[in-house]
Design brief:
The protein is mainly beta. It is 7% helix and 19% strand. The protein is built from 1 helix and 4 strands. The protein has a 4-stranded antiparallel β-sheet with strand order 3-2-1-4. The longest helix has 9 residues. It starts with 15 loop residues before the first strand and ends in a 34-residue tail after the last helix.
């Protein structure tokens, strides 16, 4: 059974949505809470989500878990989650796949503890 298409009336501050399909660089399965519903200066309606389970390393801006401005045509990619209990259950389930750290990847040189005796030392007391 197909889920009904969401409309503007389904979007209100504090409502929970789940991303059904990958969209705008975000993987399917993300859960977000509606943070803002507004209109821009041109009168276009938009909403913003705060993602609750965004996998590390997928943020497009440093330190941001917020979505871009999403519009009415973006609603086709989302399902509404009706209760907080459903949100908690989905968050406990396996989320979007996370990129594992490669076995061949070591620490960056400055964190490895290896010191080159010829390296110029700054800010150290002699």
């Amino acid at each position: 059974m197909a889920t009904p298409m969401l409309t503007r009336e389904d979007v209100s501050q504090g409502a929970y949505f789940r991303l059904r399909t990958p969209h705008l660089g975000k993987p399917a399965g993300l859960i977000g809470i509606v943070y803002a519903v507004n209109t821009d200066q041109a009168g276009n309606w938009y909403f913003q989500l705060r993602y609750l389970n965004s996998p590390p390393g997928t943020r497009t801006r440093a330190g941001s878990q917020w979505s871009l401005n999403l519009h009415e045509n973006d609603l086709e990619h989302f399902d509404r989650i009706d209760t907080w209990d459903q949100v908690q259950k989905l968050l406990r389930e396996a989320g979007p796949p996370r990129k594992p750290r490669g076995e061949g990847m070591g620490l960056p040189g400055y964190m490895s503890g290896k010191v080159d005796p010829n390296q110029l030392r700054l800010f150290e007391d002699f």
